[in-house]
Each structure stands twice: as structure tokens, then as C-alpha cells.
Amino acid sequence: MGVLRIVPLVDPRRGLPSVERVLAALPPDLAHGVRVRCARAALDAARDRMSTGEAVTFDAVVADANDRLQAAVRGLLGPVVNATGVLLHTNLGRAPLGADALDAAVGSARYSNLEFRLDTGSRGSRHEHAGQLLAAACGAEAGMVVNNNAAAVMCTLAALARGADVIVSRGELVEIGGSFRVPDIMREAGARLVEVGTTNRTRRGDYEAAITDTTALVLKVHASNYRMVGFVEDTGVAELSTLGKPVVVDAGSGLLDETTPWLPHRPTWLRGELGVRQCIDAGAALVLFSGDKLLGGPQAGAIVGRADLVARIARHPLARVVRADKMTLAAMQSVALTYLSGDATSLPLWQMATATIAELRARAERIASAVAGLKVCDTAATAGGGSLPGLDIPSVGVALDVDNVDGALAQLRAARIVALGRDGRVVCDLRTVDPSEDDRVASTLRTLSEAH
Ligand SMILES: *Cc1c(COP(=O)(O)O)cnc(C)c1O
């Protein structure tokens, strides 16, 4: 007969430190509530590990909590260095705003005459500032600004074509990304899509044959994010505007004016882009475009064109749903004023776009000379944001050979630098890096090169 031994149950979890003790060992920055969550999560993980018999030290719990805190800090929305060479990188916030736009946004962030007329003391409209200036900048009668271009399309269709037909070429039934597909938007806006032509060719006659009493609009969608070559034909705005129905152009990206009068030296790679002014001149009733992709401004959507149509859209309930806030409107106003000044070279988008190879190479050489093993390399930047598909912008970067590209990119990301991995190297394309960030790129790459 065995002896029944009663073993006292010792709960190893009793040894866990308190949340307060872990908190006291964490760096004091960052909101208390976030630090508590990290401490609790580390303690929970420790409890799980101890329940399987593992021994967990106090230091290990603190280290885990600290890792969680660092991850939480990295996850906060904040600035990064864009060393990808993608100018309008949607995941990195598209266009960087310049000092003027930032000052305007900050200045209007308090009380502002958003919907108030200072001359009469009466109620105004939030479309009177940026909207009207943008219209002036592209030769249109009127303009308004909404949350983004997707919202501009949705509002326009809902206000002008609900329950009616909208004629679109089969070659322009595009997906912009992020679930923005022309047929879906059309359905959501309550408009009936009438497809005409074929994928590669649509002529004026195709549109003409589809026009009926229930036709509200002819919609022309800029093939901004892909390119069709070969046996292709589309019908331009000038021809479409002879059909007797308002022509709405969803431009998305492109140029405010295809002659870029605001640039003293137009980059040679910038060719044949759709111009808002040219669409208006050719008879478009409305042109819709992105504040960031087309202007280099904040996220916003612009609607410019006939005053009666803009007024109808502004009155529609959806315009209220997707209206832009005062900071966006102030930044858009600033950007519109910059274009109207005739010199847009102060906008970061145009600074990046027009930086010469010689300037970029000089910066690359300076950075490379400060870091052992770092080489200057030719790169190909791109417009991004779905703009100028297939077009490479000649550029220059610095490259470092590393054993583990993914690990090196992660280290750069921990320093909030987003770079590229290419053939066993990390590459920082300097076209999208502000020159004021060069030293940070250099010192982070130096740390990386010393570790490899
Ligand atoms: C980018 C784009 C949109 C969507 O614009 P957002 O500003 O991203 O909402 C719509 N239409 C076209 C043609 C575009 O290129």
C-alpha cells in the first residue's frame, strides 16, 4: 500500500509582479493608459508561460512589456522618411505638405471664417475659399472641395444622375484600388451604368447611339493607373462635349494644366498628362481630381466646372457627409494660391519631381562618403498613387550590401525609414527624401553597416 502524500499546491503565478511594479520599470513617456495595457499584456503572457511550468523572471516581464511599448510607439501615426522613390506613396500619406500649406492648416485649426463672411458678418460657405481659388487656377466657373476624389465622384453621380443613365466607355470601367470600382460607385450612387464601345476602342458614335432622354451624364474616367497600348482609340472631351449632355471627367491624377506654367523647367519624363484646364477648355461640364495626387496637396477631392452643377452637388446631402474639414480646406487654399502665383516649385511634390540627377547624385555621394560600404546607385523612382503607370523617373540612391535584407529593412523601419530591398541590398532612393533628412538616413545606415 502506498502512502497517500498530500502535496501542497504552490501557485507559481503568485510570484508574478504587480502591474505597478512593471510600470515603474518602464520608460515614463507615452500615455499612462498605453503603458498599463503593455504591462498587463506582458503579465498575461508571463502567466500563460508559468502555467505550463516555465520560470519567468521579473526582468523578462519588463523586457516583454518594453517590447510591446516600443511596438505601440512605432504603431502610432507619425512622420517617416520615404526612401522608396515612390513620390505619391498612398501607404505613406501621398503628398508631403510644404511649409505654406502646413502653416495655413495650423493657422486655421483654431477659429476661422470657415462658413462666415467677415465683410458682411453673415453666413458663408466652406466652398468659397479653396474651391473658388482652384476653379480660378484651372479656368473653371466654380469649384468645391470634398474629402477625397472618390467622394467627389460619388457626390457628383448621386447629385446629378440618381435614377438616370450615365454613359461610360468599356475601356474606362476601371478599379482605382481600395475597392473603388466605377461600376460599384455608380450603383451605390443610384445611377444606371450604360456601357459603350469595347475595351480597347470607343468612338463618338458609340456614345451618340446610347444617348436617350434618361441620359444624365457622359462620364470619362482617366485611365490613371494603367496604360493601354496598341490598337486603341478613345474619344476626347472635345468630341464628347458635342453630344449635348454634360461631360464629367474623373481625372484622379494628372496636371492642373498640361503646359505646367508653374514650372520654369519641366522634367522631360512628364509628358502627355491629362490637364484639368484643357478638359475645361475642351468643354467638360465638370472635372474631378485628387488634392494629393494631382496638386501635391492634402487628401481631398476637387470638383470644378459649371457653377450650376457645382451648386447642385454642394446642396446634396452627400456633400455634407463627405465635406472637408477646415485644416484640409486651409491647406488646399494655400496650394491653390501657390499654383495661382505662377510658381509651384515650393511645393514638395514639384521639388521632388524636378530635382536634377546632378543634385541627387551630389547628395548621394555626400551620404555614401560618411558610411563605410555605402555605394551610390542609379534608381528608378515612380509617381505612385496609381499615377503615370509604367513611367520611370530617373533617380539616384545609396545602396548597402547586407546579409539579411528583410532584417536590415526592419531595422530601418524601427528608425522610421522606409527603404527598398533589391538583390541583397537595401536601397534608399533620394528623390523622395527631403534633403533635411539626409543626415538621419546616413547615420541610420552607418549603424546598419557597422552591425553587418
Ligand atoms: C485616384 C483616383 C480616384 C480616387 O481618388 P482618391 O483621392 O484616392 O479618393 C478616382 N478616380 C481616379 C481616376 C483616380 O485616379
Name the strands of the widest sheet in spatial order.
2-10-9-8-7-3-6
| CATH topology grouping of the largest domain | Aspartate Aminotransferase, domain 2
Give the beta-strand count.
Answer: 15
What's the overall geometry? globular
Cα radius of gyration in angstroms: 28 Å
- What distance separates the N and C termini? 66 Å
Q: What is the CATH C-level name of the largest domain?
A: Alpha Beta
* Beta-strand content bin: 15-25%
Task: Please summarize what this structure is.
This protein has 452 residues and is of the alpha/beta class. It contains 17 helices and 15 strands.
Would you write up a description of this structure?
The chain is of the alpha/beta class and 452 residues long. 38% of the residues lie in helices and 16% in strands. It contains 17 helices and 15 strands. Helix 9 links the parallel strand 7 (215-221) and strand 8 (247-252). Helix 1 crosses helix 2 (32-51) and helix 2 packs across helix 3 (58-75). It binds pyridoxal-5'-phosphate. Residues 148-150, 153, 176, 180, 221-222, 224, 250, 252-253, 290, 293, 301, 386 line the site of pyridoxal-5'-phosphate.
Distinctive features:
globular, 3 domains, alpha/beta, binds pyridoxal-5'-phosphate, disordered N terminus, Aspartate Aminotransferase, domain 2, 15 strands
